[in-house]
Structures are given as C-alpha cells and as structure tokens.
Design a protein that fits this description.
single chain; 136 residues; alpha+beta; Phosphorylase Kinase, domain 1; 2 domains; three-stranded antiparallel β-sheet; two-stranded antiparallel ribbon; 3 helices; flat
Length: 136
Amino acid sequence: MAEASFVKSVCGYCGTGCGLVLEVQDNRIVKIRGDKDAPVNKGQTCVKGSFAYEYVHSSNRLHMPLIRKSGKLVETTWEEAYQFIVEKLASIRDTWGPKAISMFACARGTNESAYVTQKFMRTVIGSNNIDGCNRT
C-alpha cells in the first residue's frame, strides 16, 4: 500500500465552495477533512463534504450517455445524445409552448453555471420556469 498524499480541493456539493484536504492513497480518496486555511469554511465541513466521496470511485457511475430505444437504455455517442435533447425540447416547445418546459438547476453548480442555465431557459426556450435546490 502506497503512502497517503494530501491534496487541497474545493467541495462541489453546493455553491459555498468550502476548502477541503483530500487524503489520497493508491489513487483513491480515503478521507476528507476541512481545510483550516480556507477562508470560506476555516476547516469546518458539512456531513456531505466530509463523508460523501465514495461516489467518485463508484462502479455505478455512467461513462457514456444513454438513450431509451425500444424500451431499453442503450449507450450512444455524445453527438446523438445532444441531438436527441435538441429535438425533444424543440418538439415540446413547438407543440405545447415554451412554458411547458422547466429546468431544475443544481445548487452544486457554480454561479456561472446558474447564469447560463437561466439565460438558456429565457432566451432559447422562452420560459421563466426555473427552480433549484439552493434552499435545502
């Protein structure tokens, strides 16, 4: 077993951006603690920031986009997945109007991501139906 190394990072669970120190051994995260030098959290973390890191190495993570064809999810290319999304959104908008589409933004995203999300919904789709989990 290799000796552990310590890597400073930023938590991605919410928009706060808490500083973390990852303990990495054999290229796997084995422990996380708050970074005492980080001005945002001064070494404190929430439960998710401290303990919810096993998803990084989960064998259940997707590595390719999936599209449902004939009732089954099948791997596809990113190009085909994007084209599928474009066609479905356009069809819904054209059939039911732009207010038939809403978007749920993730609190784990950056401010820039939230801005692009609302800009897309308002200018491309034509809908103000945007919500998020920032208040949880």
